[in-house]
Amino acid sequence: MKVKKKDGHIGGFEAFCLCNYLIYVKMFLAMPRHLIDEAGPVAWAVPLIVLVFTLVFFYILTSLLKMFEGLSFLEIAGLLWGTWAQWLLGFLFAAFFVLIIGLQLRIIGEFLLSTLLPHTPLSAVLFIMVGTFIYLAYFGIENLARLAGLLFPWLLVAFMVTFLLAMQRGDFYNFAPWLGYGEWRLLVSSVNHIGIYKEIILLAFIAPLFRNHQTLQQAGYTSLITLTFFFAFAQAVYIYVFPVHTGAELGFPLFQLTRLIYYGTFLQRLDPLFMFVWASISIIGMAAGFYVSALSLAQGAKASDYRPYLFPLAIIVLTIAFFHETSLEAVKAYRTFPAYLAIPIFGLPFLLWLWALLFHRQRRQRR
């Protein structure tokens, strides 16, 4: 089954950009505050520790995809476990992405209201953003990936410059004690955030669009290494500027960094630049997740086109976004649910890979 009619192929750089956008979104929400609250001054090491586990997972995932080159993860599940498993997993993964996007949408909407649009109704902001998701996802992954690739170099430069400028008021002493609250707390924090890069599974759903398996592997590994660098870098800058007790209390932590930039008369208040970078990454990243949720349903049902699922999923995303009365409740839910979602997102591909090793090879040998 093709991913979509006339969907063409996706290049390694475009896939790399999409993975980065999809995972970067959480960096701009509350994650830096959560990490510093749990791990203290050594919170910058959490993304590095999580990388080791994620590399093992991605190796298993790519090994599975290589066994059945040309098939997506859900198609492999249908081949090994039957049609019922393909349908069930398609529904589950769609629900995972919809839940994450709905919570992210609410938090981002509240952020826009508190910073740029204080007199605009929340519903107007959320409806416009969801409409943008539908528009971007409707024209397929190829156009979405090209947009991501076109903007990525400029957003990368703006990201680096903004955070380097924010380091003017930092203090290296904020990194002490060097082991934070101890090795055990660091390990616990790493386990709690084991799913930082779980959205890398995006590549498993669009695997048939790659010209060869090697391109998929390169896109995944380079994405994980790049993401780890920027997560650790952003966390280190945040700790360097804000002491632990202050950093654990700030809302929208990385945005607070940009508000400190002041270099004389002509270089100050660069937070509008940060807003553009943050909004661009968030909208494209969430649109990619929205696309994957529709694609997951289509592949699970063996449908030839994912687009009929976009509008119903948009209604569900809006329902989740409006479910919580306050943004604080949405932030608490967003801190809790993704940690649990990492278990099936990592566990199901591992079980499928194990099943393929133990039983599928034996079946082929008998034949």
UniProtKB/TrEMBL annotation:
Look up and give the membrane topology term: Multi-pass membrane protein
Its chief place of residence is membrane
GO biological process, any: spore germination
Q: What subcellular compartments does it reside in?
A: Membrane
**Membrane-spanning parts:** 12-30, 42-61, 73-101, 121-140, 147-166, 186-207, 219-241, 273-297, 309-327, 339-359
A single cellular component GO annotation: membrane
User: What keywords appear on the UniProt entry?
Assistant: Germination, Membrane, Transmembrane, Transmembrane helix, Transport
Q: Which domain of life is it from?
A: Bacteria
The entry assigns this protein to a family as follows:
Belongs to the amino acid-polyamine-organocation (APC) superfamily. Spore germination protein (SGP) (TC 2.A.3.9) family.
PANTHER family, A to Z: SPORE GERMINATION PROTEIN A2
Name of this protein: Spore germination family protein
